[in-house]
Amino acid sequence: MQAGEPSRTAWAAAFHRAAHQVLEQGRIFEDPLALRIVNEDATGIARWAEDHPPGRRMRTFIAVRTRFAEDSLTAACERGARQLVVLGAGLDTYAYRGALRDRVRIWEVDHPATQEWKRRRLADSGIALPPNLTFTPIDFERETLREGLAAAGFDPHQQSFFTWLGVVPYLTEEAIWSTLGFIASLPGSAQVVFDYANPPESLSPETRADHERRAARVADLGEAFRSYFESQKLRGKLMELGFREVEDLGPRQIAARYFPSRAAAMPEKGGHVVRASRRSADCRGDRSGGARSQSASRNRALRAGGIHTAGSDSGSHHRARTGDGARQGDGHGRSGQACRPDSGGWQSAGRYFITSAKWSMWWPTARCTNAHRYGRAWDFRGRTCSSLSKSSGERSSPGQAKACPTNFSGS
């Protein structure tokens, strides 16, 4: 962006969100303030869209990443998150119309010039400011995100959720990893949703041509694309930083979730949206230091016996797909607080750990009858367990995790 001027790509993103409300009637996500914040009417937006047909792909992606972020925030709030940080907020309107805006304290972080411009737009549009919103202007050439949030009253010890939409492609890798490293280091645990693009040379010819046209447009605005990522390398780096759960949707996965009839025709590479969690999603409440120590010992023992524990030694929980309510375990077989299924069908559970080439998760007791589909099930209390791998015979291993016959039916 130009010095002393608001981000022009932030304006374009807001325009796309407004266009989605008019042209697709907000089918992916609804934003009743989208037209007001950009001071456009439906007729003008529809006319612009007709003159710019390639804008449909970008409009759809922006709508999807917004929906994905808001769905993820809803799930995080159900598990105890009480702080929302909107990085590169631009003209985002969640703080003024979101269903959970009264349940979280919100910080909007942006460049001072862009944030001042937004505040004028809000005033001109008659959009009221909620009392739990804190504007946090940060010039990253003068202060860090950690310093800016601390000065604005952010509590690093509370569970937090960060959105970072439409920003990563414009930053250097150094700036990206610095920000993600800060989020991963928060002692209260945190999640972040952001978007990125695969390298242009890895794209299909049609997708690459579309990308190059878009790259030329943003470069003309003085906000050129600067960073791209290979998906597997990005996942590996996120895990190295300390994130323990990474959900990454590429073009085909996005289509499968939001418009399944088009999934088969979508390219494998392109724009992605990611949710990374420093600690796997679980219910509210902290485990004691003693429980963490016991879990760490058990995990080390299990790994010594050839059993993968997929997570940190703190006994962090993994999620299992189930439509039923389940009880949260404490990392070694004891039940904890009840969890509620979220809208996506994911649910924390306890007692049994499943591991295979594709899955690492906790599985509720009632579902162990189906565990043979996924690999091995272990009960850390040592009462019952099931080894459903291709290896034959009983095995026992340290930590009282014992392998049992494949006809195990749960207990």
Mean pLDDT: 74
Helix count, DSSP H or I runs of 4 or more residues? 12
> What would you call the shape?
globular
Counting helices, strands and paired strands, the structural category is alpha/beta
CATH topology of the largest domain: Rossmann fold
Q: Helix coverage percent of residues? A: 25-40%
Please write the string of helix (H) and strand (E) elements: HHHHEHEHEHEHEHHEHEHEEEEEEEEE
Alpha carbon gyration radius:
23 Å
Write up this protein.
This protein is α/β, with parallel strands linked by helices. The chain has helices at 8-23, 34-38, 42-51, 55-78, 94-97, 112-125, 145-151, 173-185, 205-220, 231-241, 251-258, 289-304; strands at residues 83-87, 105-110, 133-137, 160-164, 190-197, 245-249, 271-277, 319-321, 326-329, 335-339, 346-348, 352-355, 360-363, 376-379, 396-397, 401-402. The chain folds into two domains: 8-277, Rossmann fold, CATH 3.40.50; 294-402, no CATH class. The strands form five sheets. Strands 3-2-1-4-5-7-6 form a seven-stranded mixed beta sheet, sandwiched between helices. A three-stranded antiparallel beta sheet has the order 13-12-14, with no helix packed on it. The longest helix has 24 residues, at 55-78. The termini are far apart. Residues 280-411 have low confidence and may be disordered.
